[in-house]
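#help-structures
NK: newbie question, is this the right format to request a structure? protein is DUF2963 domain-containing protein
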Amino acid sequence: MIIINKKRNNFIVGAAIILINIIIYYCTFYLYIYCYFAPFKKIFSQDDAPVQKDAKENAPVKKIFYQDDGKTIKIISEFDKITDKEIKKTFYQSDGKTIDVIYEYDKHSGELVNKTQHQYDGTKIKSIIKYSQYDDKLKEVEKIDYDYNKDNGKLIKETYNNDYIKEYDKDTGKLVKETKYQSDRENLWYIHEYDKKTYKLVKKTNYRKYSFFSSDFSSKHNGTIESIIEFNKDTGEIVKKTHFNPDGTIK
């Protein structure tokens, strides 16, 4: 009986070894076939065509910074997916919802390009400052200030660099006046006035850059009006031209 059991056990072990070898052989064979033909399958199968993915698709797009309570938003920073540079930073007021100021940056250099300051209620822009690089220094190139009607919230005034002002009708929001200053931002260059009903240009007042006085051979920067041109409020045609001498008298 002992001899028979030993033979039976040897037979089972041998059969198991053979079966394992057969499984390994076929697995190896199929793996070889798959690896050999897989590239051809990718070429001819449109469904399996390689998909190009952004290498930085998992990079953070936004970072949120909270106030001390850990819940109320303080700052949201946004980043460019490709360059990873910060492109926008938004600061919020104490409620975590109302925008206070927004900074925008160049996605390549990371330099500041815009600063947008909001009013206290966060719904309207108070000012915009644009920046640019000059001689390797960041400089303010344009500033726009906005004023609104306190009753209806309509825009009534835009001031560019303190030398160009646009004024709007408080009810309609239409442009009614433009004032441009000389490069010194103090003395007038011209004033344009518009009709409040037709919104057409009705008057242009031009100022002299320099006024020369022969009496004492002196000159005054932008001392007097040079000309006034008046237009028809409906047709826009010129109806009157008046030119002035440096002393203010009509030519």
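mod (FA): yep, format's fine, and the tokens are attached above. The first strand starts at residue 62 and ends at 66.
NK: thank you!
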